Amino acid sequence: MIRPAAYAAHEEFIAPARSYPALWRLIAGLCLATFAYFSLNQVFFQALYVLLAPSGGQLLNDLASGASPAAMYILLFSFIFMSIAAGLTVRLLHHRSFVTLLGPAHLLGRDFRRVSVAVLAVTGVVLVLPPWDMGGDYVPNMALSRWMVLLVPSLFFILLQVSAEEIVFRGYVQQQLAARFRSPLVWMVLPSVLFALGHYLPDTAGENALLIAVWAGLFGILMADLTARSGSLGPAIAVHFWNNVSAMMIVSLPDELSGLALYLTPFSLDDIEALQAWLPVDFAMMLVLWLAARVAIRR
């Protein structure tokens, strides 16, 4: 059992949601946010296709899998509509501002910095330890010089993407559930189930889809724990951010979202044996980073 004192900061985080905690508002809010997000996305990509159709054939093809830097920037930018949808929802249905989804500003910035330092330190140690491959040689994907030129914008767009996901799942959904239900089994698990469903991709991951969804669900629970301990989204955004930087910019799977990666893995997303051999390692790394983040935000 987790001591109640461990989640004391969570009370300040969920306080803005207590004014309008009715469950029907959350259900309506999820419907509204989903509709707004997909509508804005549809308008954005339709406009993009109209603009690019005459001369942007290759870019349009790359958008399907994020196979180029430009395609990746467009796909990552589109997550801003998720944040907009969440902001619109809390304003219309819960009568509060978008910034209340983030937690107190001083905690957000401080804990993001602390956790970033901890995660980078642990990751640096892991990188110098064997093994130095993933069952085969990494496949070069981009020249280091070009990767360095793209470094700052790539970090910005990844931060945009992970912040949007944390704002929705650990911000809006977790806050509203915690304002209505006291049990962490509700406000930690239910948002994580939704997060896992969003990462269930049988068309691209094949038989690995369920395992990847389970990974995402457990990741969501750990991020919910960090959010409750911090009282802000800072730690969750930091861990999510550096995890995605590693997966999108350092070594990426060749099938999906590889346009910013320095290297590609020697196996693909639907490679059952290889991916299932590495997922336990990824689970272990996730737990290590979570523990490092907990230590970093300990008061």
Structure at a glance:
The chain is mostly helical. Helices cover 70% and strands 2% of the residues. It has a 3-stranded mixed sheet.
Structure commentary:
The protein has a 3-stranded mixed beta sheet with strand order 1-3-2. The protein is globular and about 50 Å long. Helix content is 70%, strand content 2%. The chain has one domain (4-296). 37% of the residues are buried. By secondary structure, the protein is mainly α. The chain contains 14 helices and 3 strands.
Q: Order of helices and strands, N to C?
A: HHHHHHEHHHHHHHEEH
Which radius of gyration do the C-alpha atoms yield? 19 Å
Shape: globular
- Percent in strands: under 5%
Spans of 5+ residues with little confidence (pLDDT < 50)? Answer: none
The side-by-side strand order for the widest beta sheet comes to 1-3-2
Task: Calculate the mean pLDDT score and round it.
Answer: 91
Tally of DSSP β-strands = 3
Q: How helical, in percent, are the residues?
A: 55-70%
| Total helical elements | 14
In the residues, how many domains can be counted?
1
Structural class, from helix and strand content?
Answer: mainly alpha
The end-to-end distance, rounded to whole angstroms, is 20 Å
